[in-house]
Amino acid sequence: MSENLLDFDVQRLTAWFASMGEKPFRARQILRWVHKVGEPDFAAMTDIAALLREKLQQQAYVAAPQVMRDEISADGTRKWLLDVGTGNAVETVFIPEAGRGTLCVSTQAGCALNCSFCSTGKQGFNRNLSVAEIIGQLWWANRQIGKDFDGKWPVTNVVMMGMGEPLLNFDNTVSALRLMLDDNAYGLSRRRVTLSTSGIVPAMDRLREECPVALAVSLHASNDSLRDVLVPINQKYPLRVLLAACQRYLERAPRDFVTFEYVMLEGVNDSVQQAHELVALVRDVPCKFNLIPFNPFPQTHYRRSKADVIARFRDVLMQADIVTTIRKTRGDDIAAACGQLAGQVQDKTKRTHRLLEIRT
Length: 360
Ligand code: SAH
Ligand code: SF4
Hints:
Blueprint: E1 3-4, H1 10-19, H2 24-37, H3 50-59, E2 60-61, E3 66-72, E4 78-83, E5 89-97, E6 100-104, E7 108-110, H4 119-123, E8 125-128, H5 131-145, E9 157-160, H6 170-181, E10 193-197, H7 201-210, E11 214-218, H8 224-230, H9 239-250, E12 258-264, H10 272-281, E13 287-293, H11 307-319, E14 324-326, H12 351-359
Parallel strand pairs: 1-2, 6-9, 9-10, 10-11, 11-12, 12-13, 13-14
Antiparallel strand pairs: 3-4, 4-5, 5-6, 7-8
Helix pairs in contact: 1-2, 5-6, 7-9, 10-11
The structure holds S-adenosyl-L-homocysteine and iron/sulfur cluster.
S-adenosyl-L-homocysteine is lined by residues 115, 117-119, 161, 165, 196-198, 218, 261, 263, 292, 294-295, 338-339.
């Protein structure tokens, strides 16, 4: 069987090399060629013995998902639609800013959690992405844009904020995270890799133990009755339980705060009273807030809060000494902004099923 080497983190690659009777340093060498250099062709790996190169050519390959569409926004944001087979496609977004480049990575084809304001959620769920499909997004984006004049890859920061709930594809997400952090692969610091979750509490505890990267939590509401509606997984892991998990996470986190994401929905969660309720709610959790102006998509009944309402909400948090930023909307002309990623998803779950899963 031929193996896609993008599927292997350093541990698995070492084990695979051992099974072929090869030494562990060979695995690190190959990892450097594939990820650091970005070379998919074994024949070009000049410091690898010819015999091993031949063996690799027979038993392995390096391939990211095929690109179906490549769009560039007026603000420089770039979005790729990647074919992951059987009628499914996921999206990856590159956001260039002065001095850094952020890649927004997808972890699932669709999402089963069905948050009421999220385009991905509305698509339903098909399947988890493999390690190759997750890390392949970074591998692909770097190679597409190319190294800068200092020989550095353009992606300096990764946010696991594309399609899907990363913590419901735990093992593959963690393998991909480990590659992002590995000095023989991308060598990103744990502060530059952020995972966003809607709050899968047991998996947050596992992540803290296995690969604590920077954490963002999608809060979106200041009390359980509203959050139950906006983020239905709240019915399983309510706010009190979620906030306790955030506190536990901070014991190992690379930053000393959690970033709470809060989508601004007009007339739903954007009142001054709700801002005060929020301040009281997060009192015991060192945190920053990132307010996300709602990004509309077809068939949604929600509207984006007005700019002055968002500013007023921010001011209440700031007055309580909570650092609060308003996320700049990027790439909305190509539907690449937060929550607009839809890709193509062949839904496999009936909505009623999904709700049952969440409740049990
Ligand atoms: N599933 C994870 C990560 C992907 S979504 C999560 O929910 O955290 C990344 C962020 O975009 C989340 O905070 C999500 O709630 C937010 N989001 C979803 N739909 C949105 C929309 N239409 N407008 C603005 N933000 C949205
Ligand atoms: Fe899934 Fe996140 Fe969208 Fe909710 S906001 S449906 S968890 S991708």
